Amino acid sequence: MMRRLVTWGLCTAVLLLLSACVTSKVDEMVFNEPTEGIGDASVVILGRRHASDYDTEPEFVRCVGDYIQSRDGSIRVIEELEFLNSLYPWFEPRTAPLKPDNLRKMLTHDLVAKRLAELKTHYIIWIDGTTVRSGSGGTMSCAVGPGGGGCFGFSTWTNDSDYEATIWDFTELAEVGRVNTTATGQSYMPAVIVPIPIIAPVQGTACDGIAAQLLEYLSSEY
To answer: The dihedral of CA 16, 199, 159, 213: what is its sign?
Structure first.
């Protein structure tokens, strides 16, 4: 009987894995697209962390940067922490510019202008958003007895991602484009003796969607 229960649980997991999908949407608005890439200049990708109820996840910011650099090695993506440390405290949440016009005032400080010139920063891309969990359902119970322990039940939940990338051009001191992505996915956790989480890759799908559009903007190869 126990073997049948385990087999049933594994079969259920396989079926759910096939159905754990993600739906996503990407919108792009570009004002001034480069025609030959960005040459030897660099781009920095930063997470917006001004909201009181959430912070843009650093791992999402890294994911976007890794996607771009892995597909076009000619694009130098400055790591977020490196950039923040180099220009401390000008890009901390309390002091970071909220609008391109604020850059003009910031660049009047010789130290800031010099450091940006050394980094050859052409574009700054602000990522604003988060992934949240909602819509939980199902039940699961676990117990331990003389013969061992285990769990039985089924639970499900929804993950929703919503991110927007805003592109600023340091040479023009202007916003030159925006990319927005949303993704929704249903995750499951069936349990027959052992819980088996089946996670919908919502955040990864959102990362790929927004990074692919940014790559088209920055790269001369796409």
So the answer is: negative
pTM of the predicted structure, to 2 decimals: 0.81
Rounded CA Rg of the chain: 22
What is the secondary structure of 34-63 as a DSSP string? -SS--TT-EEEEEE----SS----HHHHHH
pLDDT in tens, 126-170: 999 999 988 777 777 777 767 667 777 888 889 999 999 999 998
Encode 73-92: b = buried (16+ Cβ within 10 Å), e = exposed. Answer: eebbbbebeebbebbeebbe
Reduced to 3 states (helix: H, G, I; strand: E, B; else coil), residue 91 is: coil
Question: How many residues are present in the chain?
Answer: 222
How far is the CA of 119 from the CAs of 62, 82, 92, in angstroms?
18, 10, 18
- DSSP, res 163: E
Domains and CATH numbers, the chain: 25-130+160-181+201-218 (3.40.50)
SS3 180: strand
Q: Which two tokens stand for residue 188?
A: 């499951």
Amino acid at site 212? A
Tens-digit pLDDT profile for residues 75-96: 999 999 999 999 999 998 888 9
DSSP string across 111-141: HHHHHHHHHTEEEEEEEEEEEEEEEEEEEEE
Torsions phi, psi of 214, nearest 5?
Answer: -65, -40
